[in-house]
C-alpha cells in the first residue's frame, strides 16, 4: 500500500482548484458565419466519460449579438442535432429556398384575394399574416357570423 492517503476533502478541494484553472484545450475552430460569429468544438471522449462533443460560439461583438443571427444550420450543430458543421453552400441554398417559399406564400395570398397587412407579410418568420376575416382577440367581432 502506498504512503498516500486519500481524503474526501482533499479530493474535492483538488477538483475545485482544477475547475478554476483556464481550460487547457481551448477547442478547435470549426467555422464562422456571415455575421463573424466563430464556432468551436471539443471532441467527445468516451474513455473519459464525455459522450457528446462540447460546442459553443464566440460572437463577433457581445453588444450587437442577437440569437436570431444564428442560422438554423449552425443552431442545429450547436445543439448536437447534426454531426457535421454546415457548409456555406448549404446555408446559402437553404436561405434562398426559404426566401422563395415566403415569396410564393405572398403570391398565393394575393391570388386568393386575401388582404394581408403589409407590416405582417411573410417577410419575418416571427410575424404572422393578419386577415380581416379572422379575429385577433377572440370575441372582438361578436355577431359578425357569415
Stretches where pLDDT falls below 50 for ≥5 residues?
none
Count up the helices: 3
User: How are strands sequenced across the largest beta sheet?
Assistant: 1-2-3
Report the helical percentage.
25-40%
Overall strand count: 3
Structural class: alpha+beta
The N- to C-terminal Cα distance equals: 90 Å
Quote the beta fraction.
Answer: 5-15%
Q: Strand-and-helix sequence, N→C?
A: HEEEHH
How would you state the average pLDDT, rounded?
81
Largest sheet: 3 strands, antiparallel
Rg, alpha carbons: 26 Å
The rough form would be described as elongated
Describe this structure in words.
The protein has 146 residues and is an alpha+beta fold. Helices cover 30% and strands 10% of the residues. The chain has three helices and three strands, in the order αβββαα. The protein has helices spanning 8-20, 72-78, 88-111; strands at 28-32, 38-42, 54-58. The chain has a three-stranded antiparallel β-sheet, covered by helices on one side. β1 (28-32) and β2 form a beta hairpin. The longest helix is centred in the C-terminal third of the chain and has 24 residues, at 88-111. The mean pLDDT is 81.
Amino acid at each position: 500500500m502506498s504512503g498516500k492517503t486519500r481524503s474526501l476533502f482533499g479530493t474535492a478541494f483538488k477538483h475545485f482548484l482544477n475547475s478554476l484553472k483556464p481550460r487547457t484545450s481551448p477547442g478547435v475552430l470549426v467555422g464562422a458565419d456571415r455575421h463573424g460569429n466563430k464556432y468551436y468544438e471539443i471532441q467527445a471522449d468516451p474513455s473519459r466519460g464525455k459522450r457528446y462533443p462540447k460546442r459553443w460560439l464566440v460572437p463577433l461583438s457581445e453588444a450587437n449579438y442577437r440569437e436570431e443571427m444564428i442560422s438554423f444550420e449552425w443552431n442545429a450543430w450547436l445543439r448536437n442535432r447534426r454531426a457535421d458543421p454546415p457548409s456555406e453552400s448549404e446555408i446559402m441554398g437553404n436561405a434562398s429556398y426559404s426566401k422563395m417559399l415566403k415569396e410564393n406564400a405572398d403570391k398565393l395570398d394575393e391570388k386568393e384575394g386575401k388582404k394581408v397587412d403589409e407590416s405582417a407579410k411573410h417577410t419575418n418568420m416571427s410575424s404572422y399574416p393578419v386577415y380581416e376575416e379572422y379575429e385577433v382577440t377572440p370575441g372582438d367581432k361578436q355577431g359578425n357570423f357569415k
